[in-house]
Amino acid sequence: xxxxxxxxxxxxxxxxxxxxxxxxxxxxxxxxxxxxxxxxxxxxxxxxxxxxxxxxxxxxxxxxxxxxxxxxxxxxxxxxxxxxxxxxxxxxxxxxxxxxxxxxxxxxxxxxxxxxxxxxxxxxxxxxxxxxxxxxxxxxxxxxxxxxxxxxxxxxxxxxxxxxxxxxxxxxxxxxxxxxxxxxxxxxxxxxxxxxxxxxxxxxxxxxxxxxxxxxxxxxxxxxxxxxxxxxxxxxxxxxxxxxxxxxxxxxxxxxxxxxxxxxxxxxxxxxxxxxxxxxxxxxxxxxxxxxxx
Length: 294
Hints:
Layout: E1 2-3, H1 6-26, E2 33-39, H2 43-59, E3 62-68, H3 74-86, E4 92-95, H4 105-111, H5 123-130, H6 139-150, E5 159-163, H7 170-178, E6 187-191, H8 198-203, E7 207-210, E8 228-231, E9 235-238, E10 246-249, H9 254-257, E11 263-264, H10 271-293
Helix pairs in contact: 1-10, 6-10
């Protein structure tokens, strides 16, 4: 069994980006600038955005964090997005999800300039991805592709089963694993809550990508010997015996599944760190595109 170490690979990618930024600055060019908008005080979101800001510092990016109260209206948020769209200093920005109930997420994602949509959620970018055109790939799927590539995991002709059909991970992953090229060229089955015989389908998979958010859903008896297992799930489970009051776990029963898998991602330290690294990579790509246009 080989561990797909997202922490190590993400650090390698950040080092590569830092070198590219250093070269940019040496040529007298401005560093890429990533902005993040967060509405409210969701603990997990604050932790995640804080990690993004620190990562920006590490690679030499400029970064802006816009914190808005949980009572912010949709109209107020859309005004802030318009400002970011029109600010030539900002290369890319993200609006941290989930948003409060009074704000329609789809309206917000639609309002982001596709050229600055480094999360890759705008329909224009999603459509380009589906058509194999050059675009921003959503950061988590992009990170999974990078892991498969750097660990030289063969995907051609393999049966990939994706568990979960969210717009953020499951659906884009099913498209990307079936695309021409590598990683890709696999035969994809997209499963979800209405899939019948899901255990039987998973047991036939050469590659399993689980993005369900159900702790320890994937058991060893569901996975065939030698399968590649990518665990995208990350759930806080309450545990009063721990100082923090919780522990973090994934969709996969790691201890037992790892005994059968040929490759597997841990949680934490697998897909999570890759998401932030690829967000930075998308921002670098946005900066280079904007430079080419101007």
